[in-house]
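ok trying again, last paste got cut off:
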Amino acid sequence: MSTAPQEYPGATPAQWLEGARPHTWANAFAPVMAGTAAAVFAGEGNALRAVLAGIVAWALIVGVNFANDYSDGIRGTDDDRSGPLRLTGSGLVPPKMVKYAAFGSFAIAGVFGMLLSLLSAWWLVLVGALCIAGAWFYTGGKNPYGYRGLGEVAVFVFFGLVAVLGTEFTQSGAVSLLGIGMACAVGGLSSSVNLANNLRDIPTDAETGKITLAVRLGDRRTRYVWLGLVIAAVVLTLAMSLQHIAILLGLCAVPLLVLAARPVIGGAQGKALIPVLGMTGRGMLLWSVTMLLAALIS
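nice, full thing came through this time. structure:
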């Protein structure tokens, strides 16, 4: 008995954009600005290389978002979720189209990453390849590490340490102590965005076998860890200001982080936690903008 092929209604450009999850793009641009700030504080700074790094980071995060959409969708972990639209899970487009979108984004990251490596250090190509592999195997492959509670660790490493310090290195040729502090601050805030997303999805993730860090910790302890990550970024800002007083401008982001913390502290669940992601991302972006401004005026 033959089975009729599945019908896919197709996705509009707006739905494809939603699938790329623009609210996460701050995780790409913030570390590039912070890394550029560190380079400027070191007496260096290169606008062209900063732009190239920004394109690489943006393409990577779009790629990882489409990769997650595809991998989670074919596993069925997106069949019942309270977050933004997922192209695969909703059945709007064939899964392979979402996978192609992910690979296309990774290709863009690869091309601009190679160009940036030619302008700085050839071995950064290897770092870029590792970043792409990390993006795909977060939820892809037979044993995705995102299903083992390592998602936040990966975000801290790739969108914190690697992105910030890599940006600084391509412009100044070195990594500074100040850069490490900024990388840890951005990495913590970026991880808190990911953790808030997984806090929201604890019930559905646990049911489908997606064992994220939030599932491992449970609701209450996940909220404590989220607060710890955000507070650590503020403490690092105060510590770095001992070297450059202008870094205190980063405290301008505190009101946004406080607004983001309210639903977390208040025990919000499901869709009520969605604003936490956007507010934390905007706080991280503002923090990075102020770091760059502080570097320029110091």
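cool. The CA atoms of residues 162 and 258 lie 27 Å apart. The chain has 13 helices and no strands.
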